[in-house]
Amino acid sequence: MTIQTLYFRGDFPQGDFSSIPAEAIRDAAHLLSVDPIAFEKLISDLRVFDGFVDQGELTRRLLPAVAGDDEKAKGIARFVDRYHELIRTHGVPVSKFIRIFLDGLKKADPKGELIPSCSASAFCARLEQLFTSYPGYLRQAKAEELAKNCGIPIEGIEIILDLRPVFDSDRTTIEGVIPVSRLRIVSTAFNGLPVLTEVVLTEYELEQLETVVSQAKAKLNAAKKAVTEGLRSKIPNTRFTEASKSRTK
After folding, report:
1. For residue 26, which of 173, 175, 210, 238 sits 20 to 30 Å off, Cα-Cα?
2. C-beta of residue 215 within 8 angstroms of C-beta of residue 120
3. Could you tell me which residues are beta bridge partners of residue 5?
4. What pLDDT digit, counting tens, does each position of 40-83 carry?
């Protein structure tokens, strides 16, 4: 029996506004513990910041406002990053998003255990300020869109060792074994479908690959130094500049 597979072409939505997950509410609730004076300073800094504000940058800027509590800062930044992307994607005004969020909040937290109703006004005011389209947010969004359109992204890379036996003429005795290295790359095409590329590598080609990767890293480090020190420009954090899969949505 043939197994039928359904593919969604193009970007698949990473969420919507129809419901608010409990973890998102917990993240948002940390806003109530932010020191008012420190929060105002944060907003003032965001208005004039000339860099790129991604989730990591926002976390660092939130730390002083939550007395250095790393989990609270990460939670708020994760919440802002998650819904800022949805707001941009769906073209929803911030005021409408807040109304939708409050409706979802009533269903998910009816007793007001995470966000008391008496704090709703202050909470909404902070939400509106945090979700304003500051220049740093817009620069980051532009950088991420540019990175997205620069080429086909890789989903996974593997080098698989395969052992191929050499049989005698009767096919009953293994007289030897050939080790084979396979380089397997899965990428995502522009239509959203996975593309598999697989090649066989000799031992010499494996050594070549190691040399090429080392040279590419050296060139990358030189280019980054030239940009930051020579041109005095900033390098935004995108999928091209991440050294590890550390970003969370």
Report:
1. 238
2. no
3. none
4. 999 999 999 999 999 999 999 999 989 899 999 999 999 998 88
Domain membership of residue 249 (yes or no) is no
Contact 154, 187 (CB under 8 A): yes
In a domain, 207, yes or no: yes
Query: Residue 131 pairs with which residues in a beta bridge?
Result: none
Q: Which two tokens stand for residue 166?
A: 């050499």
pTM value?
0.72
Do residue 118 and residue 184 come from a single domain? no
Range of the domain at 205: 154-230
**Which residue type, as a one-letter code, is found at position 213?**
V
Rounded to whole angstroms, what are the CA distances from 236 to 138, 187, 219? 12, 23, 18
Residues 170 and 200 both lie in one domain: yes
Query: Cα(117)–Cα(114) distance, rounded to whole angstroms?
Result: 10
